[in-house]
Design a protein that fits this description.
By secondary structure, the protein is an alpha/beta fold. It has a single domain, classed as 2-Layer Sandwich (YaeB-like fold). The chain has helices at about 10-20, 50-65, and strands at about 5, 25, 35, 70-75, 80-90, 95-100, 105-115. Strands 1, 2, 3, 4, 5, 6 and 7 form a seven-stranded mixed β-sheet that branches. The model has no long low-confidence stretch (mean pLDDT about 90).
Amino acid sequence: MSDAEVSNDVRGQLLQLCRSRRTRTAVFTRARPTHWAPGEVRHPDTGEAFTQDGAWEFVAAQIAGGVAIEAIALDKPPGKTGYVIKLQGFENDSIYIKLQLGSGVVVGRSFHVSTQSK
């Protein structure tokens, strides 16, 4: 799969699912590992650490605001698609977010300070 901007349909699904506690999860499994660590990420505007709900609300607001979302092929599980958002964080940090659509849910696969060099 080549990296590409996602469709409006996918963007809408991600947004709708991120907005509800009933349709979002970030539970780690061996088949679907996650690094969802909002407490280690500072909000770009306030410098305060994110809460679990605050992280999801932030992601939803970014999607609603039209942030670029890149579709990538996931290694785990193979054949599935991940949706990556890269944002400027607090001060010199960058925030890396990766989501995966499931059956009626969105899986938070990554929410952490980026470890990639800028």
